Amino acid sequence: MIEASVLVIDDDDDILLSAKLFLKQHFSQVVTCKSPKEINVLLSRNEIDIILLDMNYQKGVSDGREGLYWLEHILSIDKDHVVILMTAYGNVELAVQAIKKGATDFILKPWENEKLFATLSAASKLRQSNKKVKKLEKIHSSLQKDINRKFEHIIGHSEPIKQLQNTLIKVAPTDANVLILGENGTGKQVFAYELHQLSQRKNQIFMHVDLGSLNENLFESELFGYAKGAFTDAKDDKPGRFEMAEGGTIFLDEIGNLSLPLQAKLLSVIQNRTVNRLGESKERKINVRLITATNMPLNEMVAKGTFRQDLLFRINTVELFLPGLAERGDDILLLAGHFLNTFSSKYHKSSVALDQKARQMLLNYHWPGNVRELQHVIERAVIMSDGLEISAGDLQLSPQKFGGTNNVVQTDMGLEEMEKLMVQKAIDKHKGNISRAANDLGLTRAALYRRIEKFNL
């Protein structure tokens, strides 16, 4: 059985019945219709791979002009459609003309079943090949930056990171949906990519979609794709990100930013494992691994009615919480060393190192921007450094004013003392309002509660 859908168009009921009885033994779907005027509706409702098109529909007409007209019409909808023309009147010139206009092949009626099967089988292989090429072209044009970029790997030996890595090893080989939580800059995309690399899908595409930067009006067309003519600038069919990730992993970053109507549309896709392109009514099956991430408190949002509970249940089969950089101890220095090597090479500088005071400053700093902030600090220090050693001054980590007061957190304090002082000041400033204090600190409520418990405040 060949996994392909065949559409047979002929005005003769006997021809349609004969074709259907034979072809359904060999192809997964066979659709028939008597009039080519139904083509638009049938193509919009079905994923057709091969079209077997009669060339004459009016009685007494045998010049094949109708077939050539409808051939051009079909190819104007999608130039990659595979069309095989058939007629009871053999004409070499007509066959040549049909091929020149884009027909894949030409077959005479009455046909021999073996000949018909061989022709459609070859056409099916051509169709699958065309689809693969088209998909790769769309992926290449849409994802050039992702294809060329180098993904970071997880760096760290702290206890929280070891626990996360153990979880990754257990979860990655499955197809369980994973929700990654954590503050901005903690490396959610790095962990998502590591999940992909440890999975059975590692040789397929890893599709990163930043929902936070995606215009709401473009959500459907970007994620689900669109058909030619669906809107003014839709000059060609375009698959969405879900289709392009077929067989691989799709990572939806900043999922907490979605409005309720968009959440409903995403939930439908996740539940049904199908997408509908804009401007089409037919459903397309998808096979992807779903990973999502956010820095927002989804459980609180569910309680407030701003995030769908059924969507949360769907995306968090497994939940990973990434710690802030300040909670990772000596991982700070491991990451700093990695970034030093990276940026020394990038900016063609001799290998530079951190002096003792610089190392201590990195360990004492509270890192509100987490790993991303550390990366920027080290890059700037490498650019500005003149020698082989980076000093505390080169890091440009000035004492941090906090809570809108003139009190300054000294960088020579111990890490925990400094963090405790910051948490206490935020709570005092907002008179115990946890939401506002967490927002001031750049933390989630859950992360702030953990620190309150840790410091017994």
Q: How many DSSP E strands?
A: 18
Give, in spatial order, the strands making up the sheet with the most strands: 2-1-3-4-5
pLDDT averaged residue by residue: 86
* Overall 3D form: elongated
Query: How would you sum up the major sheet?
Result: 5 strands, parallel
- DSSP strand (E) fraction? 15-25%
End-to-end distance: 68 Å
Which parts are unreliable, with pLDDT below 50 for 5 consecutive residues or more?
400-412
Helix content: 40-55%
Tally of DSSP helical segments: 20
- The secondary structure category is alpha/beta
Radius of gyration: 30 Å
Give a written overview of the molecule:
By secondary structure, the chain is α/β, with parallel strands linked by helices. It contains 20 helices and 18 strands. The chain has a five-stranded parallel beta sheet, sandwiched between helices. It has a five-stranded parallel beta sheet with strand order 7-10-13-6-14. A two-stranded antiparallel sheet has the order 8-9. The longest helix is centred in the first third of the chain and has 30 residues, at 113-142. The N and C termini lie far apart (68 Å).
Structure summarized in a few sentences:
This protein is an alpha/beta fold. It has helices at residues 13-23, 39-45, 65-77, 92-100, 113-142, 144-148, 159-171, 188-197, 219-224, 241-244, 260-272, 298-304, 309-315, 331-346, 356-364, 370-384, 392-395, 415-429, 434-441, 445-455; strands at residues 2-9, 27-33, 50-54, 82-87, 105-108, 178-181, 206-210, 225-226, 238-239, 249-253, 274-275, 284-285, 289-294, 318-321, 353-354, 389-390, 400-401, 408-409.
